[in-house]
Amino acid sequence: MTRQRSIMAPFIETHTPEIFKFTPPSLTLDLALGHKNGDWYLLFARPYPTADSREISRLNTRRGRAKCGLKLGNPHFLFDLGTASGWEKDGQTLLGFLLDMGPAHPAILRNWGASGNGQAMEVEVLIPEHRLLHWCSGCASWEATTNSRRWIRVRKTRLPCYLCPSCYLVRPRRGCWTQEAPAEFEHTTVI
Predict the structure, then answer these.
(1) Which residues have CB under 8 Å from 96's CB, separation 6+?
(2) How far is CA 165 from CA 14, 53, 87, in A?
């Protein structure tokens, strides 16, 4: 009797604090997902000197933001099928590009079906919140894989808010903000 080998698909490690970056097979660039102000973005995982912006494309449709109800577990949003990066093959959408990165890459999104007359697809984000790129609400900058410290969560909501270490040290704390800084940061009381 021959024994078949079990082949496991790659998965996203949830117990590591590093930003989850991925490199599609046809590119040599590190990419990541992140959210700011309720919108989801495909981003360069680190600054590239030739890129005008870290934001490659906003992924969600603003037309159907309210139609994708909050679900338990991972965040869901309506992926705008009209958005593009320029890296897609002819006839391929950006969603198709991100879903079809090959068997060597873990899935980053899960498709839950069409919505809004076929102009959007409901997707689930499979990257844990702590491994996404974070947007600093203070200085309006994106975290990068080259940063030595991660951004600090200052508001616990469905899509949390973050501050970079510099803004965290100088920004006054407001009543709705929590203090979840690592022990290495000094806390000062602002009156």
Answers:
(1) 88
(2) 23, 21, 34
Residue 58: in which H helix or E strand, if any?
strand 55-58
3-state secondary structure of 168: helix
The DSSP line for 61-93 is -STTGGGS---SSS-EEEEETT---S-SPTT--
- Do residues 153 and 160 touch, judged by C-beta distance below 8 A? yes
- Nearest in space to 126 (alpha carbons), one of 149, 105, 150: 105
β-strands 31-36, 133-134: how paired?
A: parallel
> pLDDT in tens for each of the 191 residues of the chain?
444 444 555 778 777 789 999 998 888 999 999 999 889 999 999 999 898 899 999 999 876 554 555 566 788 899 999 999 999 999 999 999 999 888 888 999 998 887 767 788 889 999 999 999 999 999 999 999 988 888 898 887 777 889 999 898 887 555 434 444 444 333 333 32
Q: Give the rounded distance of the alpha carbon of 120 from its chain centre.
A: 18
For Cα atoms 136, 140, 144, give the angle at the middle one, nearest 5 degrees: 60
| Secondary structure element (H or E) that encloses residue 42, with its range | strand 39-44
Could you tell me the two tokens for 132? 């996404």
Which tokens hold the place of 105?
């890459």
Q: Give the C-alpha separation, 67 to 24, whole Å.
A: 30
